[in-house]
Design brief:
Mean pLDDT: 96
Strand order of the largest sheet: 2-1-3-8-7-4-5-6
CATH architecture: 3-Layer(aba) Sandwich
Order of helices and strands: EHHEHEHEHEHEHHEHEH
Helix content: 25-40%
Oligomer: single chain
CATH class: Alpha Beta
CATH topology: Arginase, Chain A
Radius of gyration: 18 Å
Shape: globular
Number of strands: 8
Distance between the termini: 26 Å
CATH superfamily: Ureohydrolase domain
Number of domains: 1
Largest sheet: 8 strands, parallel
Structural class: alpha/beta
Number of helices: 10
Amino acid sequence: MSGSFFQPVDAAEVPRFAGHSTFMRLPAVKDAKGLDVALVGIPWDGGTTNRAGARHGPREVRNQSSLMRRVHHVSGTEPYSIANVADVGDLAVNPIDLMDGLHRIEKGMTEIVAAGAIPLSVGGDHLTTLPVLRAVAKQGPVGLIHFDAHSDTNDRYFGDNPYTHGTPFRRAIEEGLLDPRRIVQIGIRGSIYDPGEHDWAKQQGVRIIYMEEFVGRGAEAVMREARDIAAGLPTYVTFDIDSIDPSMAPGTGTPEAGGFTTREAQQMIRLLADVPIIGADVVEVSPPFDLAGMTALAGATMMFELLCVIASQVDERRKKNQA
């Protein structure tokens, strides 16, 4: 450590392509004790229904995160100077047993939360968010700001299977992990299975902002509403990489044309500053379908944007407690 917080390897001292691959080139640590923010991989895609490969996402996002530097060029945030951040490795997973895989992810994330760290994870398919929510919402339901092409509130797939990457938020609402009146889904688009596919979510109080509405209103207006929905209460942020247009993020399991640009996605995350974030993830990066690492780079960029927002919130709370 330099001073009291962990610091990334300096690319002016050690080239980005050299050394051990960790998130943001930070030290790898065994557990989250003493951390403000724990960067963690979830290499599991047991809920994938079509193109598998998101289990490889954490490794490639680690590689591309070597391109992230120390300071946010817009906000001036220096996350490693104001929060203690490190890579705690990958959660234990089971690639051949879905239910055991969910249990293992919940157990590993519960340990991170119990250590007092805010988890910022990279998946993995979107079903990984369900066991993460089971860990972060043990004290009661939380809000959700959800960037995605898909609502992921379907009920059953392939007969009576309730657990896929298309069902996590329906299960999370049913389990009392999420307050549906404090859920906003942004960027939803693409063809659907039937005309009423989103009716259940809307009936629960979920606010769905389709891509066409986003285009008409713009990022600032949409995020102003998202902040109002979050209501200043504990909120989880989940970012599915397929919310970005496949021209900029082709390496994902269920691509949908007509998505956000990476610049729009960055802008929206920066507008989360006033939302109390208790955890966040970037999911559905599937390196086998990527081109030149561009999707993994987009994932690493969104991870860095989220880290800067979360670190700033950590710093503000610390200053208030010291006042």
